[in-house]
Specification:
Length: 216
């Protein structure tokens, strides 16, 4: 009987029971209701996609336009369609412009093949390019007829869409210059085809080359 009384006393005593934290669960108490809050619940944060294009607002640079998102194709429209931070074909393009120049001297045609570094820059509807051709220093006829260097630049600097055509200046370090024709054709946003030409009684010039985008 004494053992039974002691057992009942231990079960109804006023002492507190310590529960290890690892078995108690991760809970906190609401200040408003006083009820426990389970902080371990896997509550999902809703994805915001206001334009319904399948791309969350955090990666969509214009979440009000369903045509603009990271998987879109960049177009010539003055906006950043694919959210890469670049608008249209803006930036710098570099490459080699291959030129064949035929110059007449005392009734004889002299032909020269030149590999000329070329750079095209574009920002929106404004562009520029420079072609710099350096002749062989030991080629006496090249030095006399073309000069040590020949540069080519456009006369206009406005462009719309993927193409441009217009007049160019071909200028020699010897002091002569002539006017020809040039064109640009952006085959992709990363590549532009540059053409130059001129034909007159003393010089026939034909140049072409694909230039690749190198960055902003």
């Amino acid at each position: 009987m004494l053992a039974l009384a002691l057992l009942q006393l231990s079960c109804t005593g006023s002492g507190t029971l310590d529960i290890p934290s690892e078995t108690a669960g991760d809970t906190s108490v609401s200040e408003e209701t006083g009820e426990p809050i389970d902080t371990d619940s896997d509550t999902e944060v809703p994805v915001v996609d206001d334009d319904g294009d399948g791309h969350a607002a955090e990666v969509d640079c214009d979440d009000a336009n369903a045509a603009v998102h990271p998987d879109a194709t960049e177009a010539f429209n003055g906006i950043d369609d694919d959210c890469d931070g670049r608008i249209d074909a803006d930036g710098t393009f570099e490459g080699t412009h291959s030129v064949t120049a035929n110059a007449v001297f005392e009734g004889t045609v002299h032909s020269f093949n030149l590999a000329c570094p070329a750079t095209v820059t574009r920002t929106g509807t404004t562009f520029d390019f420079t072609i710099t051709c350096t002749t062989v220093p030991t080629d006496a006829m090249a030095q006399v007829l073309l000069g040590a260097t020949v540069t080519v630049t456009p006369r206009r600097h406005d462009v719309t869409g993927a193409t441009w055509s217009g007049s160019i200046d071909i200028t020699s370090s010897n002091g002569w210059d002539t006017r020809g024709d040039g064109s640009l054709n952006w085959t992709t946003m990363e590549s532009v085809q540059l053409q130059t030409s001129d034909s007159n009684f003393s010089l026939v010039w034909a140049g072409s080359g694909a230039l690749a985008w190198t960055g902003e």
